[in-house]
Specification:
By secondary structure, the chain is mainly beta. The chain has a domain of about 200 residues: Rossmann fold, CATH 3.40.50. About 10% of the residues lie in helices and about 40% in strands. It has an 8-stranded mixed beta sheet. A 5-stranded mixed beta sheet has the order 20-26-25-22-23, with no helix packed on it. Strands 6-5-8-9 form a 4-stranded antiparallel beta sheet, with no helix packed on it. About 5% of the residues have low confidence.
Length: about 475
């Protein structure tokens, strides 16, 4: 940048004052002389890197971090895990020289933030701690409505059927309850269902309501006695047989289907539809079924004319009471994809100091409120910058995102100072090959650079003589 302001016809020399704690610069072809001035000395530093918090079931969290030692000797430090600023566990660790020591902890409770601190301090205290918002992975509320009756209503004398409705209820319950940061409400009986009560995801099994709720809906099984008008898109007359070994075609673009392998799933029966309803697409289908053709197994579409709002509906036409889907790994992976898609946040979980935080588009939200560490809260209405770049202070940045429909979403972004590049404050190896004399065009020019220095003494003497002649000529007049 400095070279752009210099007349290329004039001699110039750049002086760089640095501790050398950065990668070598690409200076090949730089036209001016450079003189390096190194200051400081090599010093070790420890930092908390790569912190992660994973929600587990029953209000438990797994906390992971790497404790890095950027020094030539082993370092003994006390590491402390804090929940909402209160220590919950501390222990002494010996971090080998020039290495990173992985550590895992498990804590319980409902903290808003979790942090890790190295006690004792060193020359760069800012990276001795790191934190994350424990609630960043938004809690997903799931409502499960089943028309099959409570499992307790099944007689103990009845022979156990792995495909019975009660066992399928249990399969759904186990999958949802074992997903992190997910709360299951139900199973509810059909008469307990209320479409006005909001949930992030509503699962209907063996029951189809007259009115769907707003949000995400999954219909896992159509009821045997489906009372739908002939003009209804859900009208079904019969079930079709899916022959063993039938070719299955799967959508590769829908996020709900990513990473789901249906190989090994036995599809036995599926409800026959008069046609795919308008606005729906086929996520999974059996191809070339004899005398029938292609048979949809899973559909997805949007219902915009619901009184309670828009509904994103995933409909299983496959009969889950037959086949083995609920006992196949594809079943929990599919449900996990569905919940994860709902959980997706608008903002990153964490970033580094000085890095910009991308903000969501005004097309989705009409208000953003931000509370940053050591700063006055900021509010944006209708328009705002694409990024928030005032992140020099480490800490938790809290955002409130108000959607166009009035719903409020709260998210946090942790800004930490520790990184593998910035926390290594020792002079890098390239500094050993650089002379403090001037160099031209490369960092390792060494002694030959001395010839590039410009001697200004002759120019100054010439200028002085010229001034004497001018002064004398004026005096002789």
């Amino acid at each position: 940048m400095g070279a752009a302001y210099i007349d290329p016809g004039l001699p110039a020399e750049f002086h760089v004052l640095t501790d050398g704690a950065f990668p070598p610069l690409a200076l090949d072809g730089f036209p001016h002389a450079i003189q390096w001035h190194f200051f400081g000395k090599a010093t070790g530093n420890q930092a908390v890197l790569d912190m992660r918090v994973t929600p587990l079931e029953q209000e438990r969290f797994q906390v992971f971090a790497r404790l890095a030692n950027f020094g030539a000797q082993a370092a003994s430090r006390i590491v402390s895990v804090l929940a909402d600023g209160k220590p919950v566990e501390s222990n002494s660790v010996l971090i080998p020289a020039d290495s990173a020591l992985p550590q895992v902890w498990e804590i319980t409770g409902q903290p808003a933030e979790i942090s890790i601190s190295l006690l004792g301090g060193d020359n760069l205290r800012e990276d001795d701690s790191a934190l994350l918002g424990a609630t960043h992975g938004t809690l997903v509320q799931v409502q499960f409505v089943s028309g099959s009756g409570s499992p307790a209503q099944v007689s103990a004398e009845e022979a156990p059927d792995p495909n019975s409705a009660s066992n399928l209820d249990e399969a759904v319950r186990q999958v949802i309850e074992n997903l992190p940061n997910t709360q299951l409400n139900g199973p509810l009986q059909p008469e307990e269902y209320n479409p006005v009560i909001p949930f992030d995801l509503t699962i209907f099994y063996d029951f189809l309501p007259e009115r769907f709720p707003a949000g995400h809906v999954l219909v896992l099984e159509l009821p045997e006695q489906l009372q739908a008008a002939p003009s209804s898109p859900w009208a079904t007359q019969e079930q079709l047989d899916i022959p063993p070994g039938a070719s299955i075609q799967q959508s590769l673009t829908d996020p709900f289907m990513q990473g789901v392998d249906f190989n090994g799933v036995r599809w036995v029966k599926a409800w026959k539809q008069a046609g795919i309803p308008a606005g729906f697409e086929t996520l999974l289908q059996a191809l070339n079924v004899p005398e029938v053709g292609d048979v949809p197994l899973i559909l997805r579409g949007n219902l915009d004319e619901q009184p309670s709002g828009s509904t994103d509906l995933v409909l299983f036409l496959a009969n889950l009471k037959t086949g083995n889907l609920t006992k196949h790994p594809a079943f929990p992976i599919f449900l996990a994809n569905l919940v994860q898609k709902i959980r997706q946040t608008q903002l990153p979980e964490s970033t580094y100091t000085g890095e910009a935080i991308p903000l969501p588009s005004p097309a989705e939200y009409h208000t953003i409120r931000l509370s940053a560490p050591q700063a006055t809260p900021v509010s944006f209405n209708t328009t705002w910058p694409a990024v928030w770049d005032q992140t020099l202070a480490p800490g938790l940045y809290s955002f409130e995102l108000e959607r166009l429909d009035g719903k409020l979403r709260k998210e946090t972004v942790a800004v930490n100072a520790g990184s593998a590049r910035e926390s290594d404050i020792r002079p890098q190896s390239w500094t050993g090959g650089v002379s403090t004399l001037s160099t031209v065009g490369k960092t390792g020019a060494g002694p030959q650079a001395e010839a590039q220095q410009v001697d200004l003494l002759p120019w100054l003497l010439g200028l002085a003589i010229l001034l004497l002649f001018v002064e004398a000529s004026l005096a002789w007049r």
